[in-house]
Amino acid sequence: MSTTEPAVELHGITKRFPGVVANHDIDIEVAAGTVHAIVGENGAGKSTLMKILYGMQRPDEGTIKVDGVEVALHSPSDAIARGIGMVHQHFMLADNLSVLENVVLGAERLHGIGGKARRRIEEISHQYGLGVEPDRLVEQLGVGARQRVEILKVLYRGAKILILDEPTAVLVPQEVEELFGNLRDLKREGLTVIFISHKLDEVLSVADTITVIRRGTTVDTVRPGDVTARQLAELMVGSELPVPELRESTVTDVPVLTMDGVTVRDATGRAVVDDVSLTIHEGEILGIAGVEGNGQAELVEAIMGMLPLAAGVVRLGDTDLTGMATRRRREAGIGFIPEDRHRHGLLLESPLWENRILGHQTRPPNVKGGLIDRQGARNDTERIVRDYDVRTPNIDVTAASLSGGNQQKLIVGREMSGDPKLLIAAHPTRGVDVGAQSAIWDHLRHARAEGLAVLLISADLDELIGMSDTLRVILRGRLVGEADPATITPDQLGSLMTGAGEESAA
Amino acid sequence: MIEQEIRTPAPRTGDRERRRTRMLAVGGGIFIALILLRLITGESDITSSGTMGATLALAVPIGMAALGGMWSERSGVVNIGLEGMMTFGTWGAAFASYFSGNPWLGLLGGIVAGAVGGLLHAVATVTFGVDHIVSGVALNILAPGVTRYLSDLLFTDEKGGGATQSPPLPSFPTWSVPGVGKPLGSLEKHHWILISDLAGLVRGVLTNLSPITLLGILLVPVSYYLLWHTAFGLRLRSCGENPVAAESLGVKVYRMKYSAVVISGALAGIGGVFLAMVASSNYQEGQVNGRGYIGLAAMIFGNWRPGMVAGGAGLFGYTDALQLRGGAGAVHAMLLLIGIGLLALAVWRGYRRRVVAAAVSAVVGAGVLVWFFLTDALPREIVTYSPHITTLLVLAFAAQRLRMPAADGMRYRRGGGH
Ligand SMILES: Nc1ncnc2c1ncn2[C@@H]1O[C@H](COP(=O)(O)OP(=O)(O)OP(=O)(O)O)[C@@H](O)[C@H]1O
Ligand SMILES: [Mg+2]
């Protein structure tokens, strides 16, 4: 590139929130035409820094230079005008608008909002292999598809500096590969990419430079060739890289969840979950592998009673759940970690302790004598914050002010409380740092040993293979195969998921 | 309904085409049902041109309020202040037309007055973050007070005016589609099946139209076009769905909300103009009489979409027209239709495995039919209130799969993003 100026320079950035210093005297230089990764534990201040660069938050101190020119960013429009685009850690999409509308919003000048824009979207989607359908409602999309829409949104605007805040947390390895291929192409075209991720292998494979942030300040900047994932993890959290694995089997023959011939249809009558039968026993973790959009979400919602069954039965122990309301199911002993924490897991504008009550509003320790027991709920929230290492100044802050990974830890902690018999865990470690990941896996292992049954869905194939006693593969709503987690490799599982090895399934 | 919300997975394509044909089918179906009802019960007012004309006249102010509510709520601001904005509209129309002698300036006056009401609501809810309901209710309380005061100040010295009403106002010219009235009128008299009914409908809708009626009808497709086919509309709707996301893409959320609420007030103002200058010949206190609220109901019934919202306004206009013109007999005849309709709904819900909802519909439907067969006429009190009762029934039964803008009624602070 002709320019030798760094694309972005952040100097002495400090940002305080009530009770926390999110960023403290941060210095980062991002060279033009490179991929610059930022890593750090949950709550280290990565997202806050990126929001500052995108004009969503104002820094208390410090200067920002874009292409060598000092700028004041008052709102995202200022940042957009300087060619900055951002994929946020949590989706910024309007559910009730179509993909097309979400993409063109704010950029109507480029290609209008009609046919021309649609063609352009299809073009980009094709070029980068995103498989985005412009006329679907965002509401109908799963987390992976939403993530691709978010990426397309930025590409559509033709931004020169791309900020990607955990864009791969819910993508399966093939999709991640594809995205990285695209990032390298973009780089070749002279674009600058700033990339945040907790998956250190990814970071090492795609980044040119890596900056480590700890407790709100930059601690080191390294080149991927000079460090290993293990050293990086130590720089970040001062702990070792965890491995997802189960030691001895705890599987019993007591069935907890039994599904028999379960079918769910969409409004057009198509079966999105097709004749699914499975059993999860006490002490068993059953992993469902599948490319997103093959019915996992609907399967989960059918178990939770959020979708009606067209056929079949769901039983928890001896209780027939069919026709039971979601709250009753939860009371019967089902915990639920939803795939999209903002949509289903939290009340963002409510304090943490109220979020502790959510979904457990009829059970102790939240209730005493039919009334909400504030003190009980608060005490138990303190316990979750302690046990699950939720980094927060106190339990009266709103859920929105927690960092993404800490929100996730809070949800996991809540859903594991009250000794559930069955846990439905969709992407349980989405967006949590390596330290917290191993803590969550420990909790799962522990609960499993006590007899918890778990239905696990994850885009992280290592986690899926390492943490499952049994693996089933879902394709177009049907369970098409079973795999042995002890012997299968992520590559083999990946090809099973796409249906390539359908007949070779053991 | 006390029933847990269970959503059906949505179809792969949100097909506009299909929605349009379905709307036409529903409209046609209702019309045929009305014809059958006329044949069975012999109440000719059910499809007469008089009823149809009155329907239109009664539907316009409700429809304007409903459309106004839709604009506002699409941007995420709940507008319960429509009633007050309409009141401003009636007074503004009277003031401007009386003192200028020109009805068109009256229209302008009504629009401006309504828009000022909208502006007040926008300042309170958007800039100061006041709860939308609180601000709306405050506006509804404020409006009659302000108009009373202003009338006292400006109208009491005029001939025919007073603190509670304005002097007679200049009126708009009316207009008929040429060559329609006479031939259709004679067709209608024959009471031929379908032909006479259709003649009644067309004649009622095409003759003696005021320009405000035309304007009102025109504003339905115009609203649709602006909201769904322009960049402005997309930005506006995005603020009602997810303002944080909109802001993250550079949309000026406050500005969009202001525009929407002011437009909302202007539309309500047009409804006020109609009440003061077309439906009557002067401004009177209390003229709006709850139409702002009924408009909100029509908006909800219409699922926040212009075509359906207009349909909802038409429904309320029709029941009102029927009770005014056909009286107890015609409204009584409607029971038959409602009863059968509810039973059909019960069958449909049974088919969709929604047992509780099906049972409720079946029981109420059967009850209504029994009522129909055991009585010859309805008590007068019920007849007068049939539009309100319709409002209740419709909201309770039809409102099962409504989708309001996701961020409707929520307070939004700039830079409050997560
Ligand atoms: N709007 C806010 N109000 C108050 N505190 C906030 C707000 N946003 C962030 N914080 C705090 O600032 C700190 C940094 O948060 P940030 O979201 O930047 O972390 P992060 O590095 O992105 O973490 P994660 O990996 O979990 O996403 C956290 O302690 C968080 O609680
Ligand atoms: Mg973050």
TrEMBL record, chain A:
Pfam families: ABC_tran. The keyword ATP-binding applies. GO terms for cellular component: plasma membrane. Residues 8-240, 257-501 form the ABC transporter domain. Keywords: ATP-binding, Cell membrane, Membrane, Nucleotide-binding, Repeat, Translocase, Transport. Its main location: membrane. InterPro entries: AAA+_ATPase, ABC_carbohydrate_import_ATPase, ABC_transporter-like_ATP-bd, ABC_transporter-like_CS, P-loop_NTPase. This is Sugar ABC transporter ATP-binding protein. It comes from Actinoallomurus iriomotensis.
From TrEMBL, chain B:
The keyword Transmembrane helix applies. Pfam families: BPD_transp_2 (PF02653). It comes from the Bacteria. The chain crosses the membrane at residues 21-40, 46-68, 80-99, 105-130, 205-227, 258-280, 292-318, 330-348, 355-373, 385-404. This is ABC transporter permease. Keywords: Cell membrane, Membrane, Transmembrane, Transmembrane helix. GO terms for cellular component: plasma membrane. PANTHER family: GUANOSINE ABC TRANSPORTER PERMEASE PROTEIN NUPQ (PTHR43370:SF1), SUGAR ABC TRANSPORTER INTEGRAL MEMBRANE PROTEIN-RELATED (PTHR43370). It comes from Actinoallomurus iriomotensis. It is a multi-pass membrane protein. One of its GO terms (molecular function) is transmembrane transporter activity. It is found in: Cell membrane.
